[in-house]
Amino acid sequence: MPKDKNRHRFELVKTRLGVVTIKNMELGEILHNPLGPWREANDLYVNYSNIKQKFMNLKLKEEPLVLFDLGLGAGTNAIAVIDLTRNIQNSCRPLKIISFENDLGLLEFALQNSSSLEFMEKDKFVLQELLDKGCYSCGNICWEIRNGEFTHFIAKESNYPEVIFFDFYSPNVAPQIWGLNIFQNLFGLCIKAKDTSILVTYSRSTAVRTAMLMAGFTVGMANGLANDHEGTVAATESSAILNPLDNRWLQRWRLSSRSLPFDLDGDSHSIVNQAILEHRQFSCKTEDLG
Ligand SMILES: C[S@@+](CC[C@H](N)C(=O)[O-])C[C@H]1O[C@@H](n2cnc3c(N)ncnc32)[C@H](O)[C@@H]1O
Q1: Counting atoms of ligand 1 from 1, which one is nearest the CA of 71?
Q2: 220 C-alpha to center of ligand 1: Å?
Q3: Cβ 31 under 6 angstroms from ligand 1
Q4: What is the pLDDT of residues 131-153, one digit of tens each?
Q5: How far is the CA of 184 from the centre of ligand 1 (A)?
Q6: Domain 32-289's class?
Q7: Which of 113, 167, 176 has the most ligand 1 atoms within 8 A of CB, as the residue to mutate?
Q8: Are 220 and 232 in contact (CB under 8 A)?
Q9: Minimum-distance ligand 1 atom for the alpha carbon of 107
Q10: pLDDT per residue as tens digits for the range 186-204
Q11: Do the beta carbons of residue 193 and residue 222 sit within 8 Å?
């Protein structure tokens, strides 16, 4: 394949906040909008997943901390985690990063343009090795790629993630990957993890949050980000969620015409209503809704 095969598929552009990022020209989707790759990785994914505290939890020092990085893309989110580990002096848990990706063209494009993407320059050798070999390891960190369709891999995955970065293309362009079935699969793996699992995503879609709740997660807002951007954080334990979706969200959910998980049809309304209204996050409060 010629080296510039990705040139017409991806382009460098600026986000609404003026940060250089990548646009997928085939889907018309700008990645990491509006925060840009590095701030989104750190302010949203690293911060809201509590991964630093998990990494330093020596009560579990023999247990690898498993991070699911969905999808790998330009590798920003995983690189932010590796960067974080470099600033921690004390001994920590082994870290196993599993990145899921069905199109390594985005990483190739990012590496070819690393001088324009601030976060990449320092770690381009790490990313190049990951791309060439499908894995990278250094000290107590090992990183591997599941190269192919996520839905196939997840059905037979045998690692149990304590942290999930859910960063696929948006529900507007790829709704099925954000459906109930996917979150049920993930929840099934999460509850086998040694500690509370936390999933973070940039999406605040009502249908996505409904799917997460139905799958069994407690769901909250990842807010306080630049430009009033809000993502979502979900966990297997309620205590891990600082700003849970509340009665105001439930009121809006009741009025929303777009609350059904993307993989369910209109006949599922009553099942969905029951699952949400009886969810442990809301059930004690529904009498207030009238
Ligand atoms: C928004 S980008 C990810 C950005 C990335 N997390 C980063 O830190 O730079 C979404 C990525 O998910 C991948 N992807 C989308 N759907 C997928 C699927 N069904 N299976 C595997 N990878 C998928 C895309 O190819 C793309 O690279």
Answers
A1: 12
A2: 23
A3: yes
A4: 999 999 999 999 999 999 999 99
A5: 19
A6: alpha beta
A7: 167
A8: yes
A9: 27
A10: 999 999 999 999 999 999 9
A11: no
Q: Residue 34: is the preceding peptide bond cis (ω within 30°)?
A: yes
**What's the whole-number mean pLDDT along residues 44-52?**
97
Cross-strand bridge partners of residue 137: 142
Six token digits for residue 9: 């598929």
What pTM was estimated for this model as a whole? 0.95
For residues 212 and 234, what is the distance between their CA atoms, to the nearest angstrom?
A: 7
Q: What's the 236 CA to ligand 1 centre distance in angstroms? A: 24
